[in-house]
Task: inverse folding
């Protein structure tokens, strides 16, 4: 995997912790649909709708990848895969989280709400308000899962870079 750092613009560089922060932030972007609910006094009124679909994962990740491609040396494909994995991991986690109404996974092609039937996570109970111990448990478990996905992504990149370096060194004759 080609390194995403540094950027093209002098004086502006995204360091790796920021890159990880960005990817982790992208993993919670689907839940920003609680903001309009917060404004109207009902956190759950807009939650788990359009932002929790595969279509949103593709479209939002593609748009963000286009922007990030302009400010970094990473390819559009690399950005898209990284962002889609983060966004998609959120949708996947919500899919396997206890829910009473399911997700609009295939919106707008199918308006059916899908449930996995297997609940691996507790989820967020917006009826408990913003501050709840259960929310912390959910946040930590989902971030851990996303961190695992991001770690695998970077791990694959390291292996590819090491393989490339190994092949490059094999081409250089050793002279003494
Ligand atoms: Zn969610």
Result:
């Amino acid at each position: 995997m080609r390194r995403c750092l540094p950027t093209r613009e002098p004086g502006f560089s995204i360091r790796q912790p920021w890159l990880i922060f960005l990817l982790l932030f992208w993993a919670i972007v689907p839940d920003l649909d609680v903001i309009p609910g917060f404004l109207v006094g009902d956190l759950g009124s807009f939650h788990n709708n359009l932002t929790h679909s595969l279509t949103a994962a593709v479209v939002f990740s593609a748009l963000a990848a286009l922007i990030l491609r302009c400010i970094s040396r990473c390819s559009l494909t690399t950005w898209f895969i990284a962002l889609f994995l983060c966004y998609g991991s959120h949708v996947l986690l919500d899919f396997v989280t206890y829910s009473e109404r399911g997700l609009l996974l295939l919106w707008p092609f199918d308006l059916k709400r899908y449930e996995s039937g297997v609940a691996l996570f507790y989820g967020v109970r917006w009826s408990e308000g913003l501050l709840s111990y259960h929310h912390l448990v959910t946040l930590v478990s989902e971030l851990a899962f996303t961190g695992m996905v991001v770690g695998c992504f970077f791990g694959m990149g390291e292996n590819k870079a090491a393989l490339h370096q190994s092949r490059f060194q094999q081409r250089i004759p050793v002279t003494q």
About this structure: DSSP finds five helices and no strands in the chain. Residues 30-31, 52, 90, 94 surround zinc ion (CB under 6 Å).
